[in-house]
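Dear support,

We are seeing what looks like truncated structure output for some complexes. This example has two components. We would appreciate it if you could run it in full and send us the complete token output so we can diff it against ours.
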Amino acid sequence: DTAVSQTPKYLVTQMGNDKSIKCEQNLGHDTMYWYKQDSKKFLKIMFSYNNKELIINETVPNRFSPKSPDKAHLNLHINSLELGDSAVYFCASSQTSGSNEQFFGPGTRLTVL
Amino acid sequence: DQQVKQNSPSLSVQEGRISILNCDYTNSMFDYFLWYKKYPAEGPTFLISISSIKDKNEDGRFTVFLNKSAKHLSLHIVPSQPGDSAVYFCAAKRAGTASKLTFGTGTRLQVTL
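Here is the complete output from our reference environment:
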């Protein structure tokens, strides 16, 4: 059983398009995260939700909008995609917002042409 | 401003020898540190962690050492095995709720036969 799953695994799209990445965790965790790993391999947090409430919102363009329909799901919608959005996006979850350990999904490689 | 740094992008070690991966941090508010291991096309997986109240934590072949005065931690793998070949990320966090992980850029370890 996959603990944290993401779809799609690969996403290739044109500049200006709108796309979504889905994430689901079956660990019963309260908190979920989105991280971005850029071309320099720097893994940086974007958002965090705790029980469907936004608790971390880093300096991310407002073209990025996370949505948590329930605590097991955290989706990431990106409007008007730009070349610089090309990266690997990782979803993660933790038992609570104060938990030390986070469990990561396999990542979604987004390529914007 | 990169608060967690892994200055060695890669490391090659012979099977059976010790692997030492280093990590430095600048934010004195960090009080919990983690090491994650990442294989290609997979998400990071938790390996071992240490609280700032300790200076050593051991789990099987893996030991993490923390030197708070130097703001330095290291991961020792003894003995190294070919399956240990992966990218290792150091991460740090502050106590409290809504606490995010701040990652280093990773060190690629190759264990040779």
